[in-house]
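Entry 14. Ran structure prediction on the chain below.
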Amino acid sequence: MSNFDVIVIGAGAAGLHCAATAGYRGRNVLLLDNAKKAGRKILISGGGRCNFTNYNIEPSAFLCSNKHFVKSALSRYTQWDFIAMVDKYNIAYHEKTLGQLFCDDSAKDIVNMLESECQNANVTTQLRTEIMAIEKLEQGFSITTSEGKYHCESLVIATGGLSMPKLGATPFGYKVAQQFGLKLKDTTAGLVPFTWQNTDKVDYEMLSGISLPVSVTSESGVNFSEDMLFTHRGLSGPAILQISSYWQAGQAVTIDLLPHGDLNDILTSARESNPKQALKTCLGQHFPKRLIERLIELNKLIDKPLNQFNEKEFATIANYFHQWQIKPNGTEGYRTAEVTLGGIDTDEISSKTMMAKNVEGLYFIGEVVDVSGWLGGYNFQWAWSSGWCAGQFV
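Output, structure tokens:
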């Protein structure tokens, strides 16, 4: 049996960062994963350019049953700390929108950086390794794998959630938590596209490919203003992915299709300056033309000259666009979800060390914990922060 101070299971964002952090402290670290490559989710993120953090990291941007849990980790290892590491490796990056930072070149730059950090910290990385069993001993843990048995003082579970199973996502981390008596919060797909109800699919699927800026609000009052994309199957785009994390089955979402204008004022002004202009022509200056044409086909709008509408009719049209309501059939599920909502109950874990309160030496970091961030680099920052915190104590 090979002995290590620390074994980290999961060579993703959190696991890589934790392993390197512990290695730099002089700990003898083994990093295990069943994949052929480390950092698979990093490699495909951000369209292959990895949205690795955000300038605007705040605890309020994270969903967690205990809203205070994330504060400690995020304050002790910040976005500026990770950006400093990116700068140290001379990785070029840019801000896209809303503080989101992307690599100029490739997400491989981030994976290469983390692997270099692990090598510099003398971490032993072993891929293509299945975990068969974990046993708590009087001193530490025994890990039985497809490549043999290992012993460690500290065991870190960094195996992620259920999102994107094609990348190897499994409930492994949750099963380990249950094995040791930790409670779980129900899991569901987050940051995920909506799917149409059957009637809405008939009405709107031909609008696939249309994108426009919107402001979308959940029934609980949470609001996001970004782009929305019509798809064959439903609605997507940043605004929809964001609100999906706050949506419950059976609820509707309210979408302002013209968040940066007052359509009633626009229609009234247009009627004064060009009274014979058709409604379709006027609306086509502010919305995608295909959308307006389809709404007319569906009799949601009546196309006639502006001077044939009265104030009440303008108000009704404006209200329709500013408060377009859709009740999704569901979501695309874990297949395309960027994160898993829910997971290991944070009441079971120390917010300072990431160690299970009732199991000495057992740590959980990253997405496997009941912490999910907004779209835009927040979930990677949670991986870096939680991984670093555990790395200080393992």
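The chain has a mean pLDDT of 97. Will compare against last week's run tomorrow.
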